[in-house]
């Protein structure tokens, strides 16, 4: 896990114990990042619905940072086409999150949450 991914985990880890992050395997760290991004999107959605502009923007920004860290931590050499496809998907997600923020579009947040849920369920099924 690179420094950028660890930095994103620090944002996520503010509500978790530091020991859990330090002791986690790389697989678990990715699961935590995915869960963190989903949490931030859920908070942003609630903030959007309640017209809390600053909270919405802050949490969309954190979700973008987490997703960008996931993208940056991909191993393109080992992951080949799968890593390239995930990189493109993460880039798409970040673009859609920016649009959701600018347009106050809940449906875009829901779209990204659904994509993240699919990726997370794949990670969760790995032993």
Structure commentary:
- There is one protein chain.
- The chain is mainly alpha-helical.
- Helix content is 85%, strand content 0%.
- The chain has six helices and no strands.
- It is globular, with a radius of gyration of 14 Å.
- The protein starts with a helix and ends with a helix.
- The model has no long low-confidence stretch (mean pLDDT 89).
Helix content: over 70%
Report the β-strand fraction as a percent range.
Answer: under 5%
Order of helices and strands: HHHHHH
Largest sheet: none
| Rg | 14 Å
Continuous helix count:
6
Q: What low-confidence regions span 5 or more consecutive residues with pLDDT below 50?
A: none
- The overall strand count is 0
Using the alpha-carbon principal axes, give the shape. globular
State the end-to-end distance.
19 Å
Indicate the structural class: mainly alpha
Average pLDDT for all residues: 89
Distinctive features:
127 residues; mainly alpha; 6 helices
Strand-helix topology:
Layout: H1 3-12, H2 18-23, H3 26-49, H4 53-72, H5 76-103, H6 106-125
Helix pairs in contact: 1-3, 1-4, 3-4, 3-6, 4-5, 5-6
Give a brief description.
By secondary structure, the protein is an all-alpha fold.
């Amino acid at each position: 896990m690179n420094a950028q991914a660890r930095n994103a985990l620090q944002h996520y880890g503010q509500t978790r114990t530091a020991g859990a992050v330090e002791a986690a395997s790389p697989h678990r760290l990715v699961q935590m990042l995915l869960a963190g991004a989903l949490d931030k999107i859920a908070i942003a959605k609630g903030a959007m619905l309640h017209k809390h502009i600053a909270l919405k923007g802050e949490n969309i920004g954190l979700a973008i940072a987490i997703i960008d860290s996931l993208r940056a931590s991909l191993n393109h050499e080992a992951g080949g086409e799968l890593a390239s496809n995930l990189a493109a998907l993460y880039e798409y997600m970040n673009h859609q999150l920016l649009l959701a923020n600018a347009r106050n579009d809940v449906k875009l947040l829901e779209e990204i949450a659904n994509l993240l849920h699919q990726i997370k369920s794949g990670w969760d099924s790995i032993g």
